[in-house]
Design brief:
- The protein is an alpha+beta fold.
- It has a four-stranded mixed β-sheet with strand order 1-4-5-8. A four-stranded antiparallel β-sheet has the order 2-3-7-6, with no helix packed on it.
- α7 packs antiparallel against α9.
- The structure holds flavin-adenine dinucleotide (FAD).
- Flavin-adenine dinucleotide binds next to β1, β3 and α13.
- The site of flavin-adenine dinucleotide has 22 residues, from β1, β3 and α13.
Length: 407
């Protein structure tokens, strides 16, 4: 059987691969055997998750997205990309290892922009897993693709912000300890200076988690929800401003760039798992005188999937390396996000098709994977918007008389 570690040797340093081996061992021994039970999201599943989280802490596998000085075990983006080829295989693993969205992205901006007091109040308990957070930006009434349209207002009153508005798709809001809210504080400023990011404890009077909106028929529970949240005269200290007043767009870019690549890293694990299932089943299932693996259509699916997955791995590593070197990698992140979302959906869909009706049941994780994958073409910016960003930036070079320099 193909050993991905051998192939990957050229791509990642041996120390990263050794660490990845620990995650693989943990996943195979402790998590994957319980995955179906975790999907039920009942009391027993919650208890199992807590038990696994404790075990992950004990084994030194906690918070691999954050550096040790912020309470994690991380060593940067390339390192995290390497680990996610394992962690990303299961939807639940990010929660078990304390690196789940949206907390991972929120922790990064808090680490980067937070004051010492904010680190103590919000970041420390977040990275330690004693609380969860949510990122409250998208609103039902305006196009989330264009945040200059946002309506939630924050008005300074003495030494407090007063926040009013309606958000939705605030992932993980049910049961979370605090929100990072994107609110319009300066409506008369130039469009990209109108917004401010504000840290809002979830128990502040006026914060109401209205409901978990079902997504593709699934309402979820706790971390696994996407909620409507109402802010009605919510008062928090001005000291809860993240960064400077008017910095929301700048911080969102910092928040969403790495957040997007975190998603893609996890998708690498999802793609590879779907690929494994597709290839194994194609060899095992027979029709019309031989295994499915001998039909050329199926072989095309396998070859196209292999090409797409490897392209995504290389793009992710390139992007991770650039971010580690302190580049925002705007074009790289955007092109990776839409390209990988397409490959993810294609590979999972082919794997479902090879499984026939079984692919739509709970006999394999594919149906759940397909549900989560579909959303990937929309969250953190729809594919079309990322294509627009890439094309605009490239064309800017040509307009100024230069050509696009691939790096
Ligand atoms: C599972 C999930 C989790 C999410 N979690 C969060 C979260 O935690 N916090 C949060 O704040 N938000 C979250 N979101 C919201 C997400 O970020 C938005 O859905 C996204 O930004 C798109 O905004 P919209 O849904 O309002 O679509 P719109 O902006 O209304 O766009 C609708 C469609 O228009 C098309 N379109 C838009 N602009 C262009 C263009 N320039 N060119 C061509 N076509 C275009 C696209 O096809 C797009 O899908 C989540 C969404 C999902 C599905």
């Amino acid at each position: 059987m193909n050993d991905p570690t051998v192939e990957a040797t050229q791509l990642f340093p041996p120390a990263y691969l050794e660490r990845r081996g620990f995650y693989r061992e943990f996943m195979e021994k402790h998590l994957l055997p319980h995955e179906r039970g975790l999907d039920s999201e009942d009391e027993a599943a919650q208890a199992k998750l807590e038990e696994l989280r404790e075990l992950a802490r004990e084994e030194g596998l906690w918070a691999p997205h954050m550096p040790p000085e912020a309470g994690g075990t991380g060593e940067g983006f390339l390192y995290y990309a390497c680990l996610n080829e394992e962690i990303g295989r299961s939807h639940w693993a990010q929660l078990v290892f304390g690196c789940q969205a949206p907390d991972a992205g929120n922790a990064e901006v808090l680490h980067q922009f937070g004051t010492p007091e904010q680190h103590e109040q919000f970041l420390e308990p977040l990275v330690a897993g004693r609380t969860r957070s949510f990122f409250s930006m998208t609103e039902p009434e305006v196009a989330g693709s264009d945040p200059t349209l946002l309506r939630t207002r924050a008005v300074a009153d003495g030494d407090e912000w007063v926040i009013d508005g309606e958000k939705w798709f605030s992932s993980g809001a049910e049961g979370a300890g605090f929100a990072v809210v994107f609110a319009i504080s300066d409506p008369d400023a130039e469009p990209h200076r109108r917004g401010t990011m504000i840290l809002v404890p979830a128990d502040t009077p006026g914060v109401e988690v209205v409901r978990a909106t079902p997504v593709l028929g699934h309402a979820g529970r706790g971390w696994n929800t996407h909620c409507e949240v109402r802010y009605d005269g919510v008062r928090v200290p001005l000291a809860n401003t993240l960064g400077e007043r008017g910095d929301a767009f700048r911080i969102a870019q910092k928040r969403l760039g790495p957040g997007r690549i975190h998603h893609v890293m996890r998708w690498l694990g999802q793609m590879q798992r779907a690929f494994d299932l597709m290839c194994s089943y194609a060899l095992e299932r027979e029709a019309f005188g031989g295994p499915l693996a001998e039909k050329q259509t199926v072989q095309n699916w396998i070859a196209d999937s292999a090409a797409g997955i490897q392209a995504c791995r290389l793009l992710t590593m390139d992007c991770a390396r650039k971010i580690d070197e302190d580049s925002e990698a705007r074009v790289d992140v955007s092109l990776l996000k839409f390209y990988a979302a397409g490959v993810l959906n294609d590979v999972i869909d082919r794997a479902v098709q090879v499984h026939g009706a079984r692919g739509l049941t709970d006999a394999t994780p594919l149906a759940q994977m397909a549900m989560h994958a579909r959303a990937g073409r929309i969250y953190d910016g729809p594919d079309e918007v990322h294509r627009m960003v890439v094309a605009r930036r490239i064309l800017r070079s040509y307009k100024s008389g230069e050509r696009w320099q691939f790096s």
